[in-house]
Amino acid sequence: MRRWFTAILACALSLALIAGCSAPPEAESPGQTSGPSSSQPAGQTGGQSGETQPRREVQGVTDTTVKVGGFAAQSGPVAPIGISVRKGFEAYIKHVNDQGGVHGRKIEIVNIIDDQFDGSKALTAAKQLVESDKVFALAPILGTAGFMASYDYFVEKRIPVIYPMTGVEQTAHPPQENIFAVQPNNYDEAKILTQYLVDELGLKKIAVLWQNSDMGEQGLKGVKDYIGELGAELVYDAPHDAGSVDFTTPVLNLKQKGAEGVVIMTTLAETIGIVKEMHKQGVTAVPITSYVNADPVNVPALAGEAAIGLYAGGWVPVADPDDPNIQKFWEIYGRYNNGELPDAYGTAGFIAAELLVKGLEDAGRDLTYESFIQALENLNDWSGIMARNLTYGPGERAGVKAFYLNKVIEQDGNIVMVQVNQEPYRLR
Q: Where is the signal peptide (predicted)?
C-alpha cells in the first residue's frame, strides 16, 4: 500500500504539472494552527507596504452562508484531472459543513464551472462567478491557461483566489494581495534546487538545461537571479523544445564547461533523455530536477542505471499510510465519494479547500476581505490534514518554499527513488 500510494501521488502530480506548464490547448475537522507571524495591516495592494485602503464591500456572505466557486475542466481531455480536483474540494467542504460550518456559516459551492482547460472559457467563468454568482472567494482554479487568461481580471477585482493550480511565477511574483499560491512556482523551485546543489553538495559550477516554456524560462531566471548570492557560477545554459530527443550537444557543452551540477527544468521525457545522454558521455555532474519529475515508477523504469544519482524535488513528503493525517484524508474523501481512494488531483482540491477554510476560521465571525487576507497572511509554517508547511505574509504569496528532496539510488539490486530529507529543506 505504501509504495502504491507514493507512486500514484508522484505520477499524478507530474502529469498535473506537465498539463499546467504546457501551452494552452485549443479547447482544452479543520487543520490546526501553528501560530501567527507578524504582519502589517490588511488591505494593502499586492501585499506590499503602503497606506491602508478603505474597507471593501463584501459579497457572497450572509449570516448563514459564504459563497465560493471556481473553474476546472469537467469535460474534454483534461476532465479526469478537473473532476478529481472537484471531488477533493467538495469532500472537505462537505466535511466542514457537516461539522457545523465556520462561525455558524455553511460554505456554499455555487459553481465549479467546466472551462475545458481553455483560457477564454476560464475568463468567462471567472466573470460569471464574480459578477453573477457573487462569490466571496475563488477556488478551485485549475491550470495555467485559465489562470493566465484570468490573471488581470483577478488582480482588478481583488476577489481572493485560493491555490491557483499552476507553476507559473505569476501566482506569487509579483505578490498580489488576493492571490495565495500553494504549490511551488517555477522561479522559486529553481532557486531552491540550485541552493541544494551549492549549499548541501558543495558544487559551485552550475549548468541549466531548460525547456522553451514558462517552466524553463522562469526556472532559468530563478537560477540567474540567485546564483551570485549563493557564491556559485552559471557556466552554461541551453534551451530545448518540448518533445526533444537529442541532447548530445548540450550535454557535451556542459561537460566541456566543467559543470559540477545540472539543474534540469523540463518535463519527464526530456529529463530521461538528458540523464541517459549524461550517462552515455560519462558526465559526473550531479543532475537535479523539478518535482514534476519526482516519479518513483517511470524514472527508474525509463532511465535505468542512468537515473542513479538524479535528485528530484517534492513539495509534499512521501505519503505514509500509517500517518493519522493520511488516514483521516482517505476517510473524509471516501465518505463523500462512495469509498473511492483519492489521487493526487483530489489531494490538490482537498488542500485548496483546507486553505480556504483556514482563512475563514481565522478571519473570525466578522468576515471581511481585510480580515480574511490578514488571516492568511498570518499563517507561518501552517499544516492542516494534507496542506503542509504553508507560510504567507505581507509581500509573500508563494505559500511553499520548502522541499523534500528525492534521490535515485541502487538498493538491494533495484533502482529506486527515495526521500533524502525528513524535514523540509528551505530557501535561505
A: 1-27
Among 297, 291, 253, residue whose Cα is nearest residue 274: 253
**pLDDT, tens digit (0-9, with 9 covering 90-100), for 281-304:** 999 999 999 988 988 889 999 999
Average confidence (pLDDT) over 239-248? 97
Average pLDDT over residues 218-224: 98
The per-residue pLDDT for range 22-70, each reduced to its tens digit, is 433 332 333 333 333 333 333 344 444 344 567 789 999 999 999 999 9
Same domain, 84 and 225: no
Task: Confirm whether 66 is domain-assigned.
Answer: yes
310, 190: one domain: yes
Q: Domain holding 267: CATH number?
A: 3.40.50.2300
Question: What pLDDT sits at residue 16?
Answer: 41
Our count of domains for the chain comes to 2
The per-residue pLDDT of the chain, averaged, comes to: 89
Cell output for 369: 476581505
| Whether residue 260 has pLDDT greater than 70 | yes
> Residue 132: left (phi > 0), alpha (psi -120 to 50), or beta?
alpha
Q: Same domain, yes or no, for 9 and 147?
A: yes
User: 77: domain range?
Assistant: 2-28+59-184+320-394
54 domain-assigned: no
Q: Are residues 167 and 85 in the same domain?
A: yes
Does the residue 191 lie in any domain?
yes
- On whether both 203 and 134 belong to a single domain, the answer is no
Given a cut of 80, whether residue 145 has pLDDT beyond it is yes
Cell of 169: 511565477
Residue 53 inside a domain? The answer is no
Please indicate, yes or no, whether residues 21 and 141 belong to a single structural domain of this protein: yes
